[in-house]
Amino acid sequence: MNWTKTNLPNTRAKLEQFVKDQGLHPYGIITYKGRDIFIAETDLEKDDFSHPFGYWQLAWFVTAPDSDEKMDGGSWGIYDAFHDMDQGWTAEEKRQARIRDIVTQAQDWINKATEVGRYDAAVH
Description:
The protein is an alpha+beta fold and 124 residues long. The protein contains 2 helices and 5 strands, in the order H-E-E-E-E-E-H.
C-alpha cells in the first residue's frame, strides 16, 4: 500500500476509493468507542517465494467524526493460506477468524491511543 503523510485519504469517500485502488474489497464498518473501523481484504494472492500456496491481506483503517472522517490510523495483516489448519475450519470460518483478528488489532490501536491521551476516553 502506497501511503505517505501527504498521500492519506482525507474524507470517507476518498478512503473508500483508496481501499478499492489498492486492490482491497471493502468488508464492512464497525464502530468502536466512537471511531469507525473500516475492514477490507484481498482475494487469495500468491507469492512463489514466501507464500507459494497463497495468502490474504486484510486491512483496517480508523476514522473519527471529530476529524472530518479523515483516516486517522491503519495497518494490515498477512494471513498464510494454511493459517489455523489444526482447527478444521471451513473456508468461511477461516475468513471470519482473519476478520476477528484484524478487528482486534484495530481495537487495540484505539485503546492504546485512548490510554496515551490521543483520544478523549469519554467518547464511546
